[in-house]
Amino acid sequence: MNQKIRHYTPIPTQWVGPIKIIGNTVNDEVKVPLATYETPLWPSTNRGAKISLLCGGIRATIIDERMTRSVVLKADNAQQALDTLTHLHENFSLLQKVVAKTSRYARLIDLHSQIIGHLLFLRFECTTGDASGHNMVTKAADALILWIIEQHPTLSYASISGNYCIDKKASAVNGILGRGKNVVTEMVIPEAVLTKNLRTTAEKMVTLNTQKNHIGSNIAGSLRSANAHFANMLLAFYLATGQDAANIIEGSQGIVHCEVRDKDLYFSCSMPNLIVGTVGNGKGQDLAMVEEHLQALGCREQRNPGENARRLAAICAATVFCGELSLLAAQTNPGELMRSHIAMERKG
Amino acid sequence: MNQKIRHYTPIPTQWVGPIKIIGNTVNDEVKVPLATYETPLWPSTNRGAKISLLCGGIRATIIDERMTRSVVLKADNAQQALDTLTHLHENFSLLQKVVAKTSRYARLIDLHSQIIGHLLFLRFECTTGDASGHNMVTKAADALILWIIEQHPTLSYASISGNYCIDKKASAVNGILGRGKNVVTEMVIPEAVLTKNLRTTAEKMVTLNTQKNHIGSNIAGSLRSANAHFANMLLAFYLATGQDAANIIEGSQGIVHCEVRDKDLYFSCSMPNLIVGTVGNGKGQDLAMVEEHLQALGCREQRNPGENARRLAAICAATVFCGELSLLAAQTNPGELMRSHIAMERKG
Amino acid sequence: MNQKIRHYTPIPTQWVGPIKIIGNTVNDEVKVPLATYETPLWPSTNRGAKISLLCGGIRATIIDERMTRSVVLKADNAQQALDTLTHLHENFSLLQKVVAKTSRYARLIDLHSQIIGHLLFLRFECTTGDASGHNMVTKAADALILWIIEQHPTLSYASISGNYCIDKKASAVNGILGRGKNVVTEMVIPEAVLTKNLRTTAEKMVTLNTQKNHIGSNIAGSLRSANAHFANMLLAFYLATGQDAANIIEGSQGIVHCEVRDKDLYFSCSMPNLIVGTVGNGKGQDLAMVEEHLQALGCREQRNPGENARRLAAICAATVFCGELSLLAAQTNPGELMRSHIAMERKG
Amino acid sequence: MNQKIRHYTPIPTQWVGPIKIIGNTVNDEVKVPLATYETPLWPSTNRGAKISLLCGGIRATIIDERMTRSVVLKADNAQQALDTLTHLHENFSLLQKVVAKTSRYARLIDLHSQIIGHLLFLRFECTTGDASGHNMVTKAADALILWIIEQHPTLSYASISGNYCIDKKASAVNGILGRGKNVVTEMVIPEAVLTKNLRTTAEKMVTLNTQKNHIGSNIAGSLRSANAHFANMLLAFYLATGQDAANIIEGSQGIVHCEVRDKDLYFSCSMPNLIVGTVGNGKGQDLAMVEEHLQALGCREQRNPGENARRLAAICAATVFCGELSLLAAQTNPGELMRSHIAMERKG
Fold first, then answer.
1. How far apart (Å, rounded) are the C-alpha atoms in residues B46 and D27?
2. Which residues of C are catalytic?
3. Which residues of chain A have a CB within 8 Å of the CB of C226?
4. Prediction pTM value
5. A257 and D119: CB-CB below 8 Å?
6. N or C: which terminus of chain D carries fewer CB neighbours within 10 A?
7. D250 near D179, Cβ under 8 Å?
8. How many other C-beta atoms can be found within 10 angstroms of the C-beta atom of residue B115?
9. DSSP assignment of B173-234, as one string?
10. Taking CB atoms and an 8 Å cutoff, what residues of chain B touch C172?
11. What is the model's pLDDT at position D2?
C-alpha cells in the first residue's frame, strides 16, 4: 500500500427505522444510517424505532442553538480586564459587526466571560447557519481579537482557544451556557407496549434509571451526565453523516428522565450539546456516501440557513432516544444484555 | 440503495509518521493510519511525528491495564450490603475462579465498591488479554451476579451495569481507579527544534499550557482533563484500527504537563484510560482495511496475550502526543491556527 | 478591645433530639448540640429527630474509615516513577513500620497513586484512632518522604501535600477512595407518620428527591452530591463538637436515596467522607463547652482507640439525616419553606 | 445544663493584620478577626498580612455580585416548558416588578434556565443590598412561582429549590453563572521579600502551584478548584463576622494563578462565589461579638445599600489571599509545614 496517498477506512453501516418524529422541527418518519463497528447497535436502536411507530412518535424539541469559541487575553491586572469587559458589553453591536464581516452565516448572539487574575477569558457565541461552525467561530474570534487589542492596546494575545469554549472535553460549561443544538426528546409508552415489545414495566424502568443513570453516574463522579449509552448512537450517527465525531464527548453529556404515569412510561432524553452540521468538513462531493445519507435524511433540501442542520439534530436526538430506551429495557432483566449481544453478534 | 443490507461509510484515511517511540513497550519507528473527516489533523500530527525523530523518540510508559464492569445488587439495608462485601473480599479467590470459567483470557485482579443506602455497587476489574474487554467483563459480571446471589440469597439483581464501571461517560472514576491502559508519553525538545520546527519557545509553551489547558479547562468545569485536543487523534486512530471509538470519551480525559528545562521543553501527555484491543468487534476478516492497518502497526504478531494490545496502546498514545504538541505550538502564535487550517483544507 | 489577645466568638447553640440511632456502632437515644447562626435549623432538625423516635430509629452503618495525605515526588521520567511505585508496593510492610514510628495511633492501611508525566503522587491512607488525623498523616507523610528519597535518591521533594489527599476541596477522589468515616443512615417511615408528622407522602418525597437532588444537582454540574442541605447540619454539629469545620466541604458531598415501599418511605443518606475526631485541635481543657458537648454525647468514655470517634460519626450522620428529611418534606409543599423560616425566625 | 435553652459555643478568635488592601472597593489597612479551632491559621495568615504591607497592598477587584434561587416547575412536555420560558424572557420587566414587591432591596437582574424533559428549572438572579440574600431570593422565588403559574396554569409546582441555584454544594454552575461576590485579589511580591520573609522564590512558588493546585487538584477530580486551603480562611472569617459559614463550600472553589515576573512573583486568588452580608441572620443585637467585629472592619457605616457588604467581601478575599500565600510558601520547603504546625500549637 502506498502510504502517501489518501485511502478510506470503511465503517460497517446499516439503516435503522423508520423512526417517527414529531415536534417543532421534524414531523416525519425517517430511516437513519448508523456507521459502527459495534453491530449489536443496529437491532437495538431498531427496536426503539419500532416503539416510536407504536406510540405516536418521539417529540423532539429544539430549545437553543449556538457555536462558541473562547479566547484568552492578558491584561495588566483584574481591574483592567474588568474595564475592557465592561467596554465590550457596552459595544456589543460593534462586536457583532466585526463577526458579520468574517462570514455570511456567523451572527454573534452572546458573550460570556471569566476573569482569573489578570487573564480575561471571552466566550463568543454565534449562530452559524447549517454548519456546525467550529471554523466559523475560530475565524470570527481571530477578527475579534485583532479588534479588541486595537481598542485596548494594553491587552495582549494569550490564546485563540482558551478551553472555556470548550471543544471535545468533558466539562460543565457547555451544558450550562450552551454549545451546539439543545434538544429534548420525549414520548409516553403505554403499558402494553412496554410489556410486549420491551419485556419490561414502567416501574422497572424508573427504578433502573434512578439506580444506574442517576446514582451510579453520581458515584462515578460523572459530570452533567445520566444515561446508559448516548455515546454509541451519537458516534454511529455522526460517522454516517460526516460530522466531527469527537464532539460526542460533550454530546453524550445528557440526561434520561422518566416517570411512571399510571402504568405507562414517560421517557425523555435531554441533550444540550448536540453539535451537527450539514455543510463543512466531512461533507461534499468526494464523500459520496455521506451525501447519499444526508439526502436520504432529507437534509439536502433548499431551506433557510440552519433548517437543514436543525432537522439533522432532531433526527440525531430521536435516534439516541431509540437506542437508549432499548438498552435500558434490556438491562431491567438479568442476563438479557449478554444473551442479546451474543445472539446479535452471531447473526451480525 | 437497498436499505436493508449492510454497506460501508468510507472515512478518509492517511498515514502519518513515522513516529519514533521508546520505552517499556515499543522501541520502534512506526507509521500510523488516521481515519478522519478533519483532514488538517494529518499534517498537524505529522509535524509532531517529525519532532519525535529529531529528539530521540517519545518515551511511552504503560503504567497499568484493566477493563471493568460494575453491577448493582439490592440488599435489605446497608448493613447487609456491608456484610456481603466483606464476604466477597474474604473469598476473592473464589470470585476469580468464577471469572476464569467465563473466558480463557479474563482474570479478575481487583474489586472496588460503593454502598449507597441499601444498594451495593461492585466494580469488577479484569485483565483481558488482547481484547479491549467490554464483552469479556460483561460475561464475567453475569456469572458473578449469579454466584453472589446464590451465596447471598437475600440480595437481588438491580442492574448488570451500574454506571460505576463507567463506560463512555465523562467521569472521574476511571482516571482514579483505572480502566483501559494507563500510558504516559514524554519527550524533551531542544530549544533549536522548538524555534525552527515548531516556531515557538519552551516558555511560550508552558505559559499556554497553564493558561489554556489548566486554567481554561478548570473554569470550564472540566473533569480530570487538561489538554487541547487529545480527542481528535484518538478518534482518528480508533477508527483506523477498529476500536469502539465511543471510548474516546474517557480516553480524552488526560493531562498535558510541561516544563522549561534550561531553554528546552519537557512535554508529557498522561492518558490513564486508553481503551484499545487487537481482537474483538471491529477486527477480523470482513474488515480488511482494519486488518491491514493493524498488521502495518506490527500488532498482528504471535506474542503473549496482551502484548499486541499494549503495543497498540503505546503507539496510540504517541500519536496523541504528536498532535497535541503540534496544535499547542501553533496556538502560541496569534493567527497561526486559522491560517494553517485554511491552507491545509485548500491542499486537503 | 486589645486585639493582640485571644478572645471568643460565641455561636448560638441549642440541643435537638433525642435522636434514636441503631446499627453497628450506636444503639442509643442521643441529644445533639448544634451551633449555628441559622436558627431555623434547630426546629427543622428536631422534627426529624422526633420522626426517628416514631420509626424505631435511624440505622447508622459505618462502612469504612481512614485519613489520607498525598505527597508529590519528582522522578526523571514516568518509568522511574513507575519503578519506584512498584518497589513501594513490594515493600509496603516497611512503609508501615515508618508510619508506626511516627505515632502510637497511625497505622498505614493502603496506598494509592497517580503518575503524571515524571511526577509521582502517593496517597498514604491511615487509620488514626480517635483523631480526625490531619496532623497525624502529615507527620507520617513527612517521615515517608524522607525514607523514600533515601531509598530512591534520584527522586526529589515536590510537595508535602499534592492535593490528591484531598483536604477541604470539592472533588471526586475522597468519595471514591475514602477519607474520613463512610457512613450510611437509613430508616423506613410509615405512611401515617409521613402524613401526620411531615405533611407529605412517600411518592412526593421520591419525586422531589429525583427532580431536585438528582436532576437539579446534575444540571448544576455537581460532583458526587445529591442532597438538599447536608452542609447545614454538618457545620452546626462540627462547630459544637470542636471539629475542623472546613471539612464540611467533602463531608457534604453525599447522596440521598429514597424509595416508595408500599406507601411507606425508605429514606437514606450516604455520607462517604465524614471527618470527625474526639481528640486533637478544637478539643481539650481550654474549650470547656466542646468538652461538655462531647461528654453529653457519650464520646468521652474509656474505650478502644477509634470507638469514641466512630460513635461521634454515627451520631453526626444521624443528625444530618434528621435535618435532610425535614427540609425535603417541607419543600414538597409550595410556600411551606418560607412560611416556616419566617415563623422560626420570629420565634428564634 | 438545661438543654432546652440556647447557649453559646465559643470559638477561639484572634485578630490578624493589618492587611493592606487597594482596588475598586477598599483602600485601607484593616485588622481582621479569625474564629477557628485551628490556631496555626493565625500566625500563618498574619505572615501573609505582613507581606501585604511590604508590597503596596493586595489589589481586590469586585467583578460581579448576585444571589440566586432556582425553582422547578412541571410542564406537560418540553415544548410547553420552552413556550413558557420564551414568554418569561419577553416579560422580564414584569418579573422584576413581582420581585420588587417582595423586598426593598431585591432587584431581579437575570434569569437562566434548563429544560430537562418536561421540567423547567428557572434560576432567578438578584442583587440583594447588604444581605447575603438567601431568604430574600427565596421570598422572591415564592412570589414568582405564584405569578408564573397564574399566567401559565398548565404548569405546576415541583420545588421551591431545584438545586440549580445551587446553595452549599460542590458544583460548577455558581462559578460559571455567578453567586455571591466575584472577587479577584492580586499582588506582585519582589524577590527580596520572597527570599527574606517567605523563605522561597518565585520559581518555586509557580512550580508548586502547577504541581499541587493545578495537576494535583485535577487528578483528584476537583471541580473549578485550584488552591491549597481557601476554605480555612473563609471559615474563620465567616464565623467571626456572622456569615452562614456553610457557604464556604462554593466559596472555596477558587483558583490560584501566579507567574514569575523577572524574579518577582505575581500571585492572584480568584474567588467567584464569595457569599457575605452585613445584615441578616448571624448579625444583630444578641450577637455582640459579631457586631463588634463588623464595626472594627468598617462595615457598619452609613453607606448606599450593598457598599458595606462589598467592603466585607474585599476584606474577606484579601484575608484568603494572605493565608494562601503563606501556606504555599511553607510547602515549597520540605518539612516546614509540620515544623511550623508543631511550633505554633505549642505556642498556641
1. 55
2. 38, 244, 341
3. 214-215, 218
4. 0.97
5. yes
6. N
7. yes
8. 26
9. HHHHH--EEEEEEEEEE-HHHHHHHHS--HHHHHHHIIIIIIIIHHHTT-SS-B-S-HHHHH
10. 171-173, 176, 223
11. 52
